[in-house]
Write a structure and sequence with these properties.
Blueprint: H1 6-16, H2 20-45, H3 52-61, H4 76-87, H5 91-99, H6 107-113, H7 127-138, E1 139-140, E2 143-144, H8 147-157, H9 160-176
Antiparallel strand pairs: 1-2
Length: about 180
């Protein structure tokens, strides 16, 4: 696995950004996600193995595909970000970009919603991927929200089975953190 520093990750964001405004927007959001993801990872680390560096850099780079996906909230930005990061030799970070959207996108989601994505699962599997997807859900712009707000958002946008997946990820992360705030 290629290892890069936080400074190099920010330089990569700058390299792919289209202008200063989009760079600052993505960077500010990514830093907020990074802060929360690292808080969660440090708690998880007390009881489970977690690669803190992967969380630190992966959370900074998770939205790099936004620069090439101009439509607001384009779900393709995860796929595009993964392609960019693979090209840069960052395979594990590419998986984070591909799987961070919501609680992941399944083949069934793609078929059912007729999404413009390859027919495969884009679901976080390893702990670091799950932490970043979870943290990303809780950050609205650069502000931290609540799990209730996340559930409400997905309930308005998608069907109840997806809301159950959001709750399941929350419960899994809370368990990894050694907490009892289950939904």
């Amino acid at each position: 696995m290629r290892v890069i520093t936080e400074k190099e990750a920010v330089e990569l964001l700058k390299k792919y950004s289209t202008n200063d405004e989009s760079f600052n927007k993505v960077l500010n959001h990514s830093k907020a996600v990074q802060k929360l993801a690292l808080e969660i990872a440090e708690e998880v680390k007390k009881n489970h193995d977690v690669n803190i560096d992967l969380v630190k850099i992966g959370s900074l780079l998770h939205d790099i595909g936004r620069f090439k996906c101009y439509k607001k909230n384009s779900i393709r930005h995860g796929l595009v970000g993964g392609e960019i990061l693979k090209k840069e030799g960052l395979e594990k970070h590419a998986r984070i970009a591909e799987t961070h959207i919501g609680v992941g996108i399944t083949k069934e989601d793609i078929e059912k919603q007729k999404l413009n994505l390859p027919l495969k699962d884009f679901v976080p599997e390893i702990t670091e991927e799950k932490i970043i997807a979870y943290a990303d859900n809780l950050i609205f712009g650069k502000k931290r929200g609540t799990i209730k707000k996340v559930i409400e958002r997905f309930r308005n946008e998608l069907e109840e089975s997806y809301v159950e997946r959001v709750k399941n990820l929350h419960n899994e992360i809370e368990k990894l953190r050694g907490r009892n705030s289950f939904l």
